[in-house]
Amino acid sequence: MKIISVVGARPNFMKIAPFIKAIEKHNLVSSEKIEHVLVHTGQHYDDRMSRAFFDELGIPNADINLGIGSGTHAEQVGNTMIEFEKVIKERKPDWVVIVGDVNAILACSVTAKKEHINCCHIEAGLRSGDMTMPEEINRLVADRISDLLLTPDRLSSENLLKEGVPESKIKFTGNIMIDTLENNRSKAAGLSIVEIIKQNSVNHNEFIMMDNKVPDFAVMTLHRPSNVDRKEVLEPIVRFMLDEVCPEIPLIWTIHPRTRKMLDSFGLLDEIMSHKNLFVLEPLGYLEMLKLNMHARMILTDSGGLQEECTVLGTPCLTLRWNTERPITLTEHGGASVLVGNNITRIRKEYQNALSKGRNPVCPELWDGHTAERCLEEILQYKPVL
Ligand code: UD1
Which of 71, 292, 299, 304 could form a disulfide with 75 if both were Cys (CB 3.0 to 4.6 A apart)? Predict the structure, then answer.
């Protein structure tokens, strides 16, 4: 069997790493070898957004890099389709495997299906219901046309059933990102927080230990266009952090390239850089972020992946969005995350709540570190519905 799996952007890398390991494990014990081809679309191209993850997660070099880079959505999707079609025609895989919700999954699922290739979506069935999110459009298209839909939780399987997907296409396999978390927990534990800050600092603030102990801190990440692309939304968030969070607790902000560009263009970057209790960092590696998450008093984020990791680690998580495709991570489902949108009153209230909360780790069903093996098994056992 020949499988092409596709990655494009940062959140894909931690999802594909365990899948590749599952293939390698299969090939060690089975006489029916799987030929695997890894394609990187090149949407994320900075070393810190891409190369670093391959190195630390032990992902082999991509066999093919489509070199797509930045651009409008139509440019990214269109250029990926043009290049990926050539790969499909030349390599003739039995399966194309896509993970997550970035632009690559839309482009590559459509291209694969037009070439009559089976397509498997890992992390299928997530729905935010928010059609202004490019990721929601990617998810809807990929799930509508894929042959095998591997879901991270039962709520996602139900979403697909409600949309009329035949039950035989849907398999609940668990959350593959948690495989990576479990595989790397002990490695991350060995890192030093002070060193992480020193090595990645953009504004060169020194993180001071108190009585030989790392003081409490909060972590923030922001990258969604809905939060960072408009000054009237981003500025009040920044003001709240500078005026209310930073005087109380050190804030570590790992800055996504998109956000940094926007802060600069809105004239907000200089004030952020010069605040003594705000630790501005480059985008972090996987292990470094995991280490911060294991110790943070709270995380403020608009990332879906971090919501999931906070749930497993028990870190109180303020999700700066009005909706989520991952309701299982919300406190009402037993998770660690609360939706605060970009409303400052709401952010303030939940920030105060989070300060008074402790850690409460939970493990949703099948978030057990063995999802990748189940995903591969489903592909190997797949029988088309006639
Ligand atoms: C993409 C994904 C999103 C994911 C996020 C994680 C889509 C639709 N969005 O959003 O689902 O959560 O990645 O990071 O696929 N840039 C760099 N260096 C890089 C990559 C990007 O400087 O390595 C710049 C680009 O030039 C662009 C901006 O960052 O100006 C945004 O990049 P883009 O690829 O459009 O999407 P993300 O916002 O990263």
Answer: 71
